[in-house]
Write a structure and sequence with these properties.
Layout lengths: L2 H12 L5 H13 L1 H20 L6 H45 L5 H34 L6
Bound molecules: zinc ion.
The site of zinc ion has 6 residues, from helix 1 and helix 3.
Length: 149
């Protein structure tokens, strides 16, 4: 058998698809023929390089972890929004009720009334400001694609 006849066998050998007798025949030839041995070495190297480039599929565990982290983010985001909206409503409503009651009550000193009004407005402003800051941070987070693990 000539080298040209062995060439098609080499690719089969690489893919482990040769019947045992052809395999033994080729191995005998490779032991004696430097050219074919070199070709096999080159093809083996090429195959390894190709397999390294192949897309590595995520395992089930990795996928589960990914979706869990997406869910956690959604859950926390929703929780945060609901909490913020609720807190702002309660603060505003409670604050203005308190102010209303106090202003109607002539027994409370004007200075104390001013103090409470400032306190209530201050709290609302601080809370809204914190919320805005928090939302801005969340927006920036979206661009740093790294998913929490
Ligand atoms: Zn040969």
């Amino acid at each position: 058998m000539s080298c040209d006849e062995f060439k098609p066998l080499i690719t089969g050998y690489l893919d482990d698809e040769l019947p045992p007798e052809e395999r033994a025949l080729l191995e005998d030839h490779l032991a004696d023929c430097e050219a074919c041995a070199r070709e096999l070495a080159q093809l083996t190297k090429l195959k390894e390089e190709l397999s390294m480039m192949e897309f590595k599929e995520p395992t089930d565990a990795e996928l589960a972890r990914y979706w869990r982290s997406v869910y956690n983010r959604l859950e926390r985001g929703l929780g945060w929004v609901l909490f913020s909206v609720g807190a702002i409503i309660v603060l505003c409503y409670g604050g203005f009720k308190l102010i209303e009651e106090m202003i109607k009550d002539p027994g409370i000193a004007v200075l104390l009334k001013v103090g409470v009004v400032a306190l209530v407005f201050g709290t609302v402003v601080l809370f809204v400001s914190l919320l805005r800051e928090r939302l801005a941070v969340r927006k920036v987070d979206k661009y740093s694609k790294e998913v929490e693990r």
